[in-house]
């Protein structure tokens, strides 16, 4: 009696092609699955390149060009020529632009530590065990960030103006002569606006980091007899250090980008000129002097300054970490 053996065409060693055909769809599925994350990233990457990367590259390109007018008054037309670093030399040769960089650096040295320190204190107070209504006060402290910078500058501009400001009136009743828009004080009046606007934003970043600290650490500190100050100094502040570094870097970059607030306050005082900050100087070069190439060079200088300061701060922080 002969026993018939059934051969599976899909089994290994057989001549059937169904195994290859079964593996092929799986390979196609794996390749298509690998493309899914890129499909989700594509809209962001497209907007990032279009709205961020290309404008930066175009500004760098424009900073190396110069428009040369032909004829005595340009009546024979004009041509664009390569200027090398000439626009950068012209930008740095403007005393107003150089002074504006020094002004915002002084602004940042004073205002950034004050703002980050106040944001840290508010975050620690709101996350303490004895805090009452923390949700309400978090919303209240964050509320100024929802006010546009132009509107906030207008509000504070009226509060700084003599005859309109209740602050100056109350100070006058107390025998104080306040000049909040004077040549020596207007910079710090702008610093007050920036601090009022962004202290709540930085506070929320620190609060979010504080909420990641395990409860067990607080319980252990309480068992060891640590008070609120020791808990904050030895547990909370070291563990939220990355958030402190992040908010500091954001604040440094924001300092170099000052534009809307001094531009609005300029309407209330004569002590702010058209080159009071680097961005105002670049704006003036582009839209008043019609020198877009110098404005591009000034913008690149501001960006490089922000890059150097940010990464210099990161290097300093990481260097201290390595030495520990």
TrEMBL record:
It is a multi-pass membrane protein. Signal peptide: none annotated. Gene3D superfamilies: MetI-like (1.10.3720.10). Residues 1-27 are annotated as: Disordered. InterPro entries: MetI-like, MetI-like_sf, UgpAE/MalFG_permease. Keywords: Cell membrane, Membrane, Transmembrane, Transmembrane helix, Transport. It comes from the Bacteria. It is found in: Cell membrane. The lineage of its organism: Bacteria, Bacillati, Actinomycetota, Actinomycetes, Streptosporangiales. Belongs to the binding-protein-dependent transport system permease family. Pfam families: BPD_transp_1. Residues 101-313 form the ABC transmembrane type-1 domain. SUPFAM superfamilies: MetI-like (SSF161098). PROSITE patterns: ABC_TM1. This is Sugar ABC transporter permease. It comes from Nocardiopsis codii. The chain crosses the membrane at residues 35-61, 104-125, 137-159, 186-208, 239-260, 295-317.
